[in-house]
User: What shape does this take?
Amino acid sequence: MKYILAIDQGTTGSRAVVYNRCGRKIISAYEEFPQYFTKPGWVEHDPEEIWQSVNNSIQEVLKKIPGNKIEAIGITNQRETTVLWDRDTGKPVYNAIVWQCRRTASRCSQIKAIKGETEFFRKRTGLPIDAYFSATKIEWILKNVKGAFKKARRGKLLFGTTDAWILWKLTGGKVHATDYTNASRTMLFNIEKLEWDNEALKKFKIPKQILPEVKRSSGVFGRTVKIGKLSAGIPISGIAGDQQAALFGQACFKPGTMKNTYGTGCFVLLNTGKKRVVSKHGLITTLGCGPDGNPVYVVEGAIFIAGAAIHWIRDGLKLLSCASESEKMAVSVKDNAGVYFVPALVGLGAPYWDQDARGAIFGITRGTNENHIVRAALEAMCYQTKDVLEAMRKDSGLKIKDLKVDGGASANNFLCQFQADMLGINVVRPKVIETTSLGAAYLAGLATGYWKNTSEIKRCWEKDKIFRPKMPKSDALDFYKGWIEAVKRTLTFT
Assistant: This one.
């Protein structure tokens, strides 16, 4: 029997997962890598450490599954994180600047102050001007790393999000490419013409020759070289940014279907098919994967900090020893005792887009303990999701009947139930919650004929549990009002 290997290159670690024809996980391996907070608001990764975590995870699963049993490889990745490396040596010229990094916030403010620029980028790229996206990160490296701009102009530097970096490594430096979903997160890609936007590139003085070739998400990008137990010649045939991959993994192939992934951040995506919806309520338009791997339009609400808040409470405040403890701690208290945690640790994303907001915990009294703070962090994921869904309702006019959820935090029953209570709709959790890697596997397998079509994939999707609203609507509204008040006090904190 043959299998599909999916690489899930995330913000805090990398995972390799082997799937069978039923879309079931056979084996997986995971390795974290360091986060570098070099200045307040700055977040970096070492690209070589990213690659090492990917390779180590691959080698670990191949101890159990022989390399010749892998039919194809799919890659999914943290999206906007920016890597620039030397074309000849393959060495990064600087650390990867992570999507969470706010070092270019002031540069974004400068651009927004110029008349017409906000509308230009919204129309061309579907995105707001924000440090979240890749363009100003590339610009910063080219300006601040000695000799980088000259090298770039000579075609000696290459840019990529982490999918392109991993693809380059897996193919022994033979392939420099990405897919439409990742390209659409750079603030440099024209989502109507489906090509790099020359005018946007000029604004940032980014030489076009450093950019990767853009291909559809399902198709052969290149083939592996032999790396340890990984066989040579395996097609790398699926690539998609993590949230678009999760949308595909949740079998959200039709317009009007949606999902929320609870990971480091929280990302709500609504498939709008061939129709480009222009948001008037703080959401973004981006590209997703259609049933054939070709791009479709997606409306997205990007929440910067979700599970990362629990990690901060664990590592920074030392209030819990592991993330899985959060559910037990949350249910140990009857309610939040008036405590609200606004996790604007790197600013606020959708629908607020306030890059100067900073995190805060409100409502602390002598009676507040660590359980209330942990509960408030979990509740914040649900409030932020409600913010986004309210905006989606207004923009799309769609009546949202239920919400498919996935990602590591969706295993938390308290979180899922509170989410259902806040939204007043059913929250549906699938049996496979690692849908980012599953989506990448599906895209890879479709390209090689491992799965014939999306109908076959749809039959693989199975629900684990449906969480139905239990809380009285008036109580849910009171909780949410408290959140709105807390956010108001947090906005543009300087």
Observations:
- The longest strand covers residues 295-303.
- The chain has a mean pLDDT of 93.
